Amino acid sequence: MILELFSPSDYQEFNRVLKNNGMLIKVIPNANYLIELRHLLYQDGERNYQYDNSRVVELFKQHYPNSQIKKIKYRFDIPNGLQEALLEMTPLHWGENAKKLSREELDQLTTITVDVSLLITKKS
Question: Which Gene3D superfamilies does its entry note (predicted)?
Fold first, then answer.
């Protein structure tokens, strides 16, 4: 089994490593993944304000036409004081806007949305 989380795919390597009947699961973010944080960091119209994974899904389906997609979406409360840690564990903190957030703005982030798709295929 290969499990790929939020990273670019190397389909040639997947096919080389995966044995017959082996499973590949690729986890990708959907449009509402960490949306509260993105909307705190970016303005409408800026590059990271919205997210679209349709090209990633299309490419996966080109390589694995018999694949399945399972969507998972939920919200959870961020424990007090862990907002900065949440920001730092995402690539969103790399941008200029992340550095402009005040502690008060970050503390307003009390819930976060996890919205992902599992792209699943089995090598035959």
Answer: Vaccinia Virus protein VP39
Q: Which domain holds residue 55?
A: 2-122
How many domains does the structure of the chain reveal?
1
- CA–CA gap between residue 1 and residue 20 (Å, rounded): 10
Question: Measured between alpha carbons, how far is 102 from 98 in angstroms, rounded to an integer?
Answer: 9
- Please report the pLDDT score of residue 100 as a whole number: 79
Whose tokens are 């699961």? That residue is 25
Q: Which residues are CB-contacts of 49 (< 8 A; sequence separation ≥ 6)?
A: 38, 39, 42, 43
Output the pTM of the full model: 0.89
Q: Does residue 40 contact residue 109 with C-beta atoms inside 8 Å?
A: yes
